[in-house]
Design brief:
Helix content: 25-40%
Low-confidence stretches: none
Strand order of the largest sheet: 1-3-2
Number of helices: 5
Structural class: mainly alpha
Mean pLDDT: 80
Largest sheet: 3 strands, antiparallel
Bound molecules: zinc ion
Number of strands: 3
Radius of gyration: 37 Å
Strand content: under 5%
Order of helices and strands: HHHEEEHH
Shape: rod-shaped
Distance between the termini: 72 Å
Amino acid sequence: MSAFWTDDRVEQLRTLRAEGLSFSKIAARIGGISRNGCIGKASRMEMPAGEGDRKLKPRMFKTRPPAPPPIPEPEPISPPVTLIAAGPSHCRWPLWSDDARHDFRICGHAPEGGSPYCTHHRRRSMGAGTKSERVAA
Ligand SMILES: [Zn+2]
């Protein structure tokens, strides 16, 4: 026990706390001790919290609802083109199949300006995009 906290002061702290006084008022009454000094002593004595003590409320975090999963677009029905027959006017998206090793084909739709892929496959190659892009689509 520190020299400050005599039995009388401890009893005074206990009594004033039981009366519901705040630690700053208790510190002023006892004198010679700070509010934090009183809090520390009360904590070490495992005094129950008073009515006026701030109780920590669980925080209510604002959470965003999870973004809806992107709606998969159906594969465009296209006449698959073999890689050898493909020209600049064919989407280059590979169409895999079980027999891809023997019959490798690509999408074959008209590519979107500047892209090697058609509109559908360009979107697939780019991913879901930004929210505004998803809204615009
Ligand atoms: Zn395509």
